[in-house]
Amino acid sequence: MSPIETEDTRAKILNAARQVFVEKGLDGARMQEIADRAGVNKALLHYYYRNKENLYQEIIRSTFSQFFQTVTNIINSTHPVEEQIRFFIEQHINFIHQNRDFLKLLGYELLRGNETFFENFEQAIKKGFQFPERFIQVILKGMEEGTIREHNPMQTIISVISMNVFFFLAFPLFSKIFPGITENETTFLEERKKAVGDLLLYGILKPSQK
Amino acid sequence: MSPIETEDTRAKILNAARQVFVEKGLDGARMQEIADRAGVNKALLHYYYRNKENLYQEIIRSTFSQFFQTVTNIINSTHPVEEQIRFFIEQHINFIHQNRDFLKLLGYELLRGNETFFENFEQAIKKGFQFPERFIQVILKGMEEGTIREHNPMQTIISVISMNVFFFLAFPLFSKIFPGITENETTFLEERKKAVGDLLLYGILKPSQK
DNA sequence: GTCTATAGCGGGATAGAC
DNA sequence: GTCTATCCCGCTATAGAC
Lengths: 210, 210
Prior knowledge:
2 copies of one chain form a homodimer. Chain A contains 11 helices and no strands. In chain A, helix 1 crosses helix 4 and helix 1 packs across helix 6. Chain A is elongated and about 65 Å long. The first copy, chain A, has 2 domains: 50 residues, Arc Repressor Mutant, subunit A, CATH 1.10.10.60; 150 residues, Tetracycline Repressor, domain 2, CATH 1.10.357.10. The longest helix of chain A has 26 residues. By secondary structure, chain A is mainly alpha-helical. The structure holds a DNA duplex (18 and 18 nucleotides).
């Protein structure tokens, strides 16, 4: 077989594995199901990826390296303080919305309490990845300029991330509590972006700035 | 054996089961481990709870009925608008902090995408459970009084819940990004409550109110 | 009500033909 | 590189003694 076909097979397995791991988690996933969805034999999974755990780690690796790449791109663009914050929220929500896989895998790893994952995350942040420093700088700059009220920037960062991520994580519940959410997805997403931006900007800007 | 001893065994099993399900999730949990931790024989789990799924549902049921009870109590106390919001944040964060089990089980059910769970949640809210109506009323009242700026209360509710819940869910990651968090737990919790309250109140109150 | 023993099978992993 | 066949362990669940 040609190397191209080989790559096809590897990729087919990875795609199928991602689907199944996202839906069922590491423990709930079945190698047989991955093989079926990939349209290949179960033994091939072991040929290419040795075992289940290893295959799972492959998915985690690729998913989070893509995530860090995206965040780096977002972080590196600079605007005036207020625009910068709106821009971050806009991009962040877009990314999560378009990468539900990322969100679920993040959830599984958090619940697993996988220390190795946490340490990798830490390493990725420390090495050449300027988040959250860049975000903190924006807020500090606003505080120096006198446009943002005095507070601990860390709290704001935690709050933004939480508002953006948890909304999607708990979407099934929120949509039960507030049925209107599901009616017009894109409309609602835009409303959500505006609401988070407003809360944040009204919440950290000094009254005189509004 | 006396009925009291029977209740002891049932309770021991439930406690052990809660621990294991919280740590490993439904798929990752092992009946043998539950039996070991409860100090009883594996067959007893089936004698009392028929099968694994049923035992798990028992844990979910009791955990969430306790949750709804607590939220009802919190919601039913009334204060002036601003205090009411601070009070809710205070109580909400306290509850989550003292009930990590609840948090993790919620996470597992969200990731499982368990529709039955979502529907039960919906039912619990509809039947005699005044959240989020009570919260909406507080915000609407503030808007009528002219102390709160015009906005969709739903967005605020989603934001508060997200900020409070996700902080604890992602604590292992946040503590890697901001190592200071772990130094003084109670101090930090108080700082967090204040930060969320400030963000919210500055963010939804009209400038003239500050 | 609690135990021992075991059924029964699902599922990860490997050997080996092609 | 891909398949078939099979191993074999681990786990849920049950039967049955005490």
